[in-house]
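Hey,

The postdoc asked me to send both predictions to you directly instead of through the lab channel. I've kept everything plain text so nothing gets mangled by the mail client. Protein one:
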Amino acid sequence: MTYETIRTLSGLTGLILFGTLFVGIVFWTFRPGAKKQYDTDAHIPLREED
């Protein structure tokens, strides 16, 4: 294997890895079951607890 081949494969592997990670994070954030938890978390600063 030449340096150029290794460099190309490394770049491609990184692109696929980080692309998959990005899609996973976006999916996790906008999944249907998350709305209730995000609504609950959004009201934390407004709670008055003693």
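Protein two:
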Amino acid sequence: MRRALKEFIWFYNEIRVHQNLGELTPMEAWQGKTIADVRRLQDEQPGQWSSALNGLLVGYRVRC
């Protein structure tokens, strides 16, 4: 259970974008990034598919 919670928290904070945070992840918002910073970073480096909880949560990680 602890491993599953740790995976979920990682996914929630670093992969999943949040509408109330202006399409930023909580980690990006905490670091003070703007959506312009994130888009610039997306142009500079490739992303990767990430998953958690045996594939139940899937997202495209580009930004952190």
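Summary for protein two, as requested: The mean pLDDT is 84.

Thanks,
C.
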